[in-house]
Amino acid sequence: MLLQALREEVLEANLELVRRGLVLYTFGNVSGIDRSQGLVAIKPSGVAYEDLTPEKIVVTDLEGKIVDGGLRPSSDLATHLELYKHFEKIGGVAHTHSEYATAWAQAETEIPCFGTTHADYFRGPVPVTQPLSAEEIAGDYERETGLAICRIFREVDPEAIPAVLVAGHAPFCWGANAAAAAHNAVTLEYVARMACHTLSINAESRPLPPVLRDRHFLRKHGGAAYYGQAKPQGNAAAETEAKR
User: 190 catalytic, yes or no?
Assistant: First the structure.
């Protein structure tokens, strides 16, 4: 099976969305890319999550041509492909219709960074795209959706804010791989829900000061990050065991 490891990773990332309650029925999809081969693995269109297997994950090239798999890829494939083409450092994309993040998208309103939980993952508000024109909707709709996302990130770092709200539609997230993209989708839904609660308590709530926002983001993601545990270096015993 072509790209077996990637297909298994993409399957697991799709199932993570189900486990975390971000999808209903066949809503949503996750993909991953093998940059060395220029191939993308993505959930098939309209297939129930409980029926997914690695073999059913579809492999395409960056133009959307099916390379391996007997099913049609997600209808959102063209959006995923535009993100891979424009954001060269990402390795996975996740799309959901999770309740709170989608509500913000439907309201065509960015999610403000009200607190440090948000800042731990997103270095600023999660932006919302401009609505598509009638011509864009009638044309290559899914590709135009991807292009609308990429226009937002001409002036926003996609690594600092690995998520976007598509106006009237729903969120897309990305990360270093499919698992990271799914993780960011779960986190986005959490902060979207908290933002709603924050405004329901105090409609005049203000975003976090940039100095505190940046401190929280950089301690986790910056070059001098110190959150979590350092990776083991030179573990000879582990390396020996791995070779057996």
Answer: no
Domain borders along the chain are 4-227
Long-range contacts made by residues 211-218, C-beta under 8 angstroms, separation at least 24?
Answer: 212/116, 212/119, 213/113, 213/116, 213/119, 213/123, 213/124, 214/119, 214/123, 216/116, 216/119, 216/120, 217/119, 217/120, 217/121, 217/122, 217/123, 217/160
pLDDT band for position 241 (50/70/90)?
very low
Q: Over the stretch 23-46, which tens digit does the pLDDT of each residue have?
A: 999 999 999 999 999 999 999 999
Q: Annotated catalytic residue: which of 120, 141, 190, 214?
A: 120
Choose, from 61, 140, 157, 227, the residue flagged as catalytic.
Answer: 227
- 120 is an active site residue: yes
- The superfamily (CATH) of domain 4-227 is Class II aldolase/adducin N-terminal domain (3.40.225.10)
The pLDDT assigned to 243 comes to 35
